[in-house]
Sequence to fold (197 residues):
Amino acid sequence: MRLIALKRNLRQKSEFDIIWLDDDNSNNNNNNNNNNKRENYMPTKLNSYTIQDNIIDKMKTILEQTKKDGIEHGFDLCSKDNDLVIRNICEGDKCHIKLVKKCEKGEILAGSYHTHPKGTLGSWSPDDMHGACEEDFSCLGYNWYGKGRIKCIVRKSDTNTEKCKEDIAPGGRYNIQSYASRYHQLLNKYFKQVYIT
Fold:
């Protein structure tokens, strides 16, 4: 994607219209040349952690598996001296996955990755976001118009874990209508989004 800012009024230089153009558009004549353009400028740094290429490759592999079998797959990402390792690869069903969230001795849980099957797009469910309150980051793989995408939410440094969880699920119960209406507010309050691919 590329970002274009157009001046709406020359007298008010600070006022802009912002338009996102997708370079992957299937109607674009240069589609073959632009397929990987998005990946070339996306960061792989999530707070103090760097998502290594081998982990991104595994994320893509698991996303392809989800595309084939239509169920969620995922794994935990553990850290030892800020190096990330994959632990506890597992699979769920068409709409849910329960990650183990456990690391080996001397490691700490840094984050997790899981996929969403076709139709769920790239939004975090209440359960996903609730779990992310306890992690430094949580990554999600999904298919967007046939293209595999991976993005992460990184917990902000000032996030209080218990307040985050209570805001998302008051009294430990999800109200899907309330969550849907506050989705972007909650996302922006406790996390920042980072696109990997």
